[in-house]
Write a structure and sequence with these properties.
alpha/beta; 10 helices; two-stranded antiparallel ribbon
């Protein structure tokens, strides 16, 4: 069961609450000052997304650029951090602060790179400034989460390392909810739009286990958009790796791998299969090596 109570993700049901009004491009100096006013005018997502103010974000060195072009890909990442057993909201907020500090102080970026972050407890948080405003209005806050593809992709950072460890159920349910929301907001086909970081850049992200479940993710999101129930979605998707909530506790946390040369969270993430590619392999099968630049290079440096 999802951590979010509202389940109305059909395209028709969502059309009236997204507030897709046309807004003039804001001047950078006015962007942050007007952000709260814009948020008040737009409708909230159909589940709780914690704002930057709520998790205690630092002020960015420069407001994010918001463009009228909607993203055409949803990029799934993992943070490549420790698989903590702390599922609390406090840990989720701490994660977002650590990601932002790493990106701003460690990499010299203007702000956190990804637009959205999901904790292992299933809490969803705004990442880069102006991301929620942009999603509400059908536009795109350009991030720094997928090198060479930042202007047409929106990134979801998932807490943990999923090279071998299973994905927690609360995180997975929230990822389904979040992808369904984004597909509705931007009128995207989940089978085409949802990809993994490694599909666009040479990286291990989002880990073999999470990457192997992307076909399941696309199917669950598609059924959600068509008004299917969670039970129907579960019956329509193949069995996957045992969920961490049901798995025996490991004797020790696996060590996080070294960051790969990507553009995102504390230790880079990614996952997915692009259009026309074979179905994602099962966790027990060998995983295709990371691929690179499957989509046109339309990146503008952060």
């Amino acid at each position: 069961m999802s951590t979010h109570p509202e389940r109305g993700f059909t395209r028709r049901g969502m059309a009236g609450i997204l507030g897709l009004g046309a807004l003039d491009l804001l001047m950078p100096g006015r962007a942050l000052a007007q952000e709260s006013a814009l948020a008040a005018e737009g409708e909230e997502p159909p589940f709780k997304v914690y704002s930057r103010d709520e998790w205690g974000a630092l002020r960015p060195t420069r407001p994010a650029q918001v463009i009228s072009r909607a993203p055409d890909r949803i990029v799934v990442h993992h943070t490549a951090t420790a698989n903590t057993k702390d599922r609390s909201l406090a840990q989720a907020f701490r994660l977002s602060r650590e990601i932002q500090r790493f990106h701003m102080r460690g990499r010299g970026w203007n702000d956190a790179g990804q637009q959205l972050t999901i904790s292992r407890g299933g809490y969803v948080m705004e990442g880069r400034n102006r991301s929620l405003e942009a999603i509400r209005t059908g536009r795109h806050a350009v991030g720094a989460q997928t090198l060479h593809h930042n202007r047409h992709t929106i990134g979801i950072e998932n807490e943990g390392t999923y090279s071998r460890a299973p994905v927690p159920s609360r995180l997975w349910d929230s990822l389904i909810d979040t992808c369904a929301w984004l597909c509705t907001a931007y009128d995207l086909d989940p089978f085409r739009a949802i990809v993994g970081h490694r599909d666009l850049y040479s990286t291990d992200c989002p880990g073999d286990i999470m990457y192997a479940r992307l076909t399941e993710l696309r199917t669950r999101v598609a059924l959600r958009l068509d008004g299917g129930s969670d039970k129907e979605a579960a019956e329509a998707t193949p069995p996957s790796e045992v969920n961490e909530a049901d798995a025996p506790a490991p004797s020790a946390e696996p060590s996080a791998p070294s960051p790969s040369p990507s553009q995102s969270g504390p230790a880079r993430p990614s996952a997915s299969t692009p259009p026309g590619s074979p179905a994602s392999p099962s966790p027990s099968a060998s995983v295709t090596p990371p691929r690179q630049n499957l989509l046109p290079d339309v990146n503008v440096p952060d």
